[in-house]
Structures are given as structure tokens and as C-alpha cells.
Write a sequence for this structure.
């Protein structure tokens, strides 16, 4: 395929991916957050969620489900999304919280915090305060929650998820990261963020090949567990058959 043909195809894909956002923008909603997560399946490390609010004129081509993209392309798009987004929020829950409340509930908490952070960034830019999230976080997010007021984000697009603790209108899209530009952008931000964390963890815990498997259950990872035992970032509830 020639370069011009590929660019034309990617531009058509961009138009297709903005369908849900365009409908919401036309209805009068100014700020739409796409939310996605990465890290529900690994044996080690956190689950990471991202909430991304894009401008209506967002025109970065190539944004798609992070799983469809090469590492190099994800890194490139990560930078472009950071440059062009109106707001980006990151939320995460570590292995201890995952073990305590299960991966689904930990994912919901991470997503709620990601939305709250995106709200805070929008609000600070507009001179207001954040709102719409009833989930009561611990630690530094508790102070943010205590200041919540008027909601900036008018609608959230989730990838196959709905969160009752977030009192903002929501749409759950099956395979949303391949259908919505906002969710796709969030999937890229979450994936690159978590990958960077796992590469750092690989320096601290070199026995498990985290730099390549990112905590997933590969042969090298299991061999590392057999050789060195588990490390502080392993999810014990995911390793019941080994412990």
C-alpha cells in the first residue's frame, strides 16, 4: 500500500472512531472522557486506568486500540495525545489492593480516580472545582474528593464497563477501544504508563523478566517464580496454585 493510500485509510478510520464523540458533541456536551484500563490479567504489578478528554478538532491519525499497535507506535501516539488532549487522568491500584478487594473492584476504583484526576485538570484550567465522583478514595485523592463541586465532564465512554460510583452519564461500549477515539487514546495512555512502570520494576526485581512480559504469566516469569519465589509486587490471589 502506498503512503498516500495508507494516510487516506487512517483518516477515514479517524472519522469512524469519532462517531460516538461527534454525536455527543452535537448534543451540546462539551467534555467527553474516554476511559480504559490495562493490567487486569497479569500476575504482578498494578492495574492502571486512564481517562482522556479530547478536543473536538482532535486530528491525530493512527490512534486505535493499543493492543493493535506496535510499542514504537504506542510511544509516538502517547506523546501526541499528551500534547493534544484537554485533560488526562491516571488512576491505579496496586497488587495489595487487588488482593484485598479483587481485580474487578480494584479496576473500578482505578477508573474512578482517573476520571477524578481528569476532572481536576479540567476544573483547574477553567478556574472551577471537580465533581461527579462519589467514590471516596484514600490518600492524596481524598483531598481532591473533598473539594468536588460542579462536574466538568458531561459524558463518559467506557470500554465494556459502567461504574455506579461515578454520577456522570455513561455509555459502555463492547470493544470500545476499537470504536471510540477517546477510549482508544485512554488505552494507549494506560498501556504506555503501565509498561514504563513494569520496566522500572524489572530493575528492582530482575528475576521475572518484567521488562518483556510486563507481569503477565510467560514461561520466563513462571521460571523466575520457581527460582526466586514471589516478590512484593506479585498478586497473591493470582498465584494460589503456586503459593
Amino acid at each position: 500500500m502506498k503512503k498516500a493510500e495508507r494516510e487516506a485509510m487512517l483518516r477515514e478510520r479517524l472519522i469512524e472512531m469519532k462517531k460516538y464523540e461527534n454525536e455527543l458533541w452535537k448534543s451540546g456536551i462539551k467534555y467527553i472522557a474516554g476511559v480504559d484500563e490495562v493490567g487486569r490479567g497479569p500476575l504482578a504489578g498494578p492495574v492502571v486506568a486512564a481517562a482522556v478528554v479530547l478536543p473536538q478538532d482532535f486530528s491525530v491519525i493512527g490512534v486505535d486500540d493499543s493492543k493493535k499497535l506496535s510499542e514504537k507506535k504506542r510511544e509516538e501516539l502517547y506523546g501526541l495525545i499528551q500534547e493534544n488532549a484537554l485533560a488526562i487522568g491516571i488512576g491505579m491500584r496496586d497488587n495489595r489492593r487487588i488482593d484485598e478487594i479483587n481485580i474487578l473492584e480494584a479496576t473500578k476504583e482505578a477508573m474512578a480516580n482517573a476520571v477524578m484526576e481528569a476532572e481536576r485538570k479540567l476544573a483547574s484550567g477553567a478556574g472551577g472545582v471537580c465533581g461527579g465522583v462519589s467514590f471516596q478514595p484514600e490518600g492524596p485523592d481524598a483531598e481532591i474528593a473533598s473539594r468536588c463541586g460542579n462536574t466538568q465532564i458531561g459524558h463518559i465512554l467506557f470500554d465494556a464497563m459502567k461504574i455506579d460510583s461515578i454520577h456522570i452519564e455513561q455509555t459502555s461500549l463492547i470493544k470500545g477501544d476499537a470504536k471510540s477515539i477517546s477510549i482508544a487514546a485512554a488505552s494507549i495512555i494506560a498501556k504506555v504508563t503501565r509498561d514504563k512502570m513494569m520496566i522500572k520494576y524489572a530493575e528492582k526485581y530482575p528475576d521475572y523478566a518484567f521488562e518483556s512480559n510486563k507481569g503477565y504469566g510467560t514461561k520466563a516469569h513462571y521460571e523466575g517464580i520457581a527460582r526466586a519465589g514471589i516478590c512484593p509486587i506479585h498478586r497473591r490471589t493470582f498465584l494460589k496454585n503456586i503459593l
